[in-house]
Amino acid sequence: MTTLTEAYETAEQITRTEARNFYYGIRLLPGPKRRALCAVYALARRVDDIGDDDRPVTEKLPALEQVSASLAELRSGKKDFTDPAMIALADATGSYPIPLGALDELVDGVRMDIVGTTFETFEDLVVYCRCVAGSVGRLCLSIFGGPQASTDDEAVRRADTLGIALQQTNILRDIREDLLNGRVYLPQEDLTKFGVDLRVENGRLADPEGNLVELIRYRAAEARRWYAEGLKLVPMLDRRSAACCSAMAGIYVRLLTEIEADPQAVYHQRLSLSGGQKLRVALRSLTGGRV
Length: 291
Hints:
Layout: H1 4-18, H2 22-26, H3 31-52, H4 57-75, H5 84-92, H6 100-115, H7 122-144, H8 146-151, H9 153-173, H10 175-180, H11 188-194, E1 200-201, E2 204-205, H12 211-230, H13 239-261, H14 275-286
Antiparallel strand pairs: 1-2
């Protein structure tokens, strides 16, 4: 039988291994908050992995339903789980006002991936981003800020907005990889407006006339508007939580800056920051530096 200590250790190991960007911020939190956020991440990671694995849709959807069923059991008061992720999450909900409905939204967003949802407009894309990333922002807030901040409407809105900004950065970074996996997250209205025929030729995104460069720069500028609003959350948090939030967001802002400087860099690779770059962002956040 998995003990509570072992469950939290498992959740932290998953986070340290899989959350290559987020963990630089998470480790700035005091122990109880770090453990709780790792518990949330471990369950969220399981949901993401269901969406990304190679199983057929007929197996992925039931797997998502199993997660939803576990969340429903937790919501109804069940605590005696055998799954380490659920053991840790159940304990964390006793200390923090974790909105389990946000995890349900994450499940909904991954279900959209599995069934191949497409996005005609940016507003359509925002619905998806709110499910898969705004939800994570709200989950983090419930641990960052305690009961008062997590129920403050303005703080919740800003956390949601910041998550959506991060997801827009992910989308720009992963255009090629997503396309190779049969997914397109850029709204069709943008592709039409900029005259982009999204395709891969000889292993890289084709852009004979430079239209995709212009689209990426446009979308990056729009993402910065979401960051500007979402980062207003930081002053509402205590010092360590603010440092964590700033570090996580700062890594993605730095990544967005690199994409803006050279949009064609995403044509053939998945951009990422070095460990040293991420560490510098985290240290700057800990000392109160601007994102």
